[in-house]
Amino acid sequence: MKVNRNGQAEVLSHANLDDLFNVMPDRYRSLFGICYFTGCRIAEAIQLKRDDVGIRSITFRRQTTKTQKTRTVKINPQLAKIMTEADLPETGYLFPAKDGDGHLSTRAADLVLRKYCDYLGIKGVSTHSFRRTALTHMSNGGVPLRHIQEISGHSSLASLQKYLEVSEEQKEEAIAVLGF
Fold this sequence. Notes:
Elements: H1 14-23, H2 26-38, H3 42-46, E1 57-60, E2 71-74, H4 77-85, H5 106-120, H6 129-140, H7 145-152, H8 157-161, H9 168-176
Antiparallel strand pairs: 1-2
Helix pairs in contact: 2-4, 2-6
């Protein structure tokens, strides 16, 4: 768990996600929805421009990704609904800074998230929680790691696996299949 900016960001439960998305304003629901439904980093999401978002997919440009590789991710129907409900700009950055100069900062996004997590009493969460949560949920849902790697943009399976949380229940279930 992340404490005072140390440790790994908490993986959110479906109930935590539901609670957060129900209290956040549309703009931030869209921002964190993009992070969750595409498995992207917050820095990638805040730098998205209207031209990067199509009807069926979002393109993360190489100059905004950590690996310097462009990737395109299909838009989940639930994300499409969230984004449609938000009043996002028709041109320029999807998440402009309040002063209109550039895009929202990662710090500003973090402060907003902390506000709603504090309100709900959710601990250990950071903006990176949405990425870890998405990747863990996909893995738990049986999505092959290679597919998750393509979506997340990780350069290797080893780096991807650091993001995946394994619960005590999953460990018990794994041990339970052993026998002869």
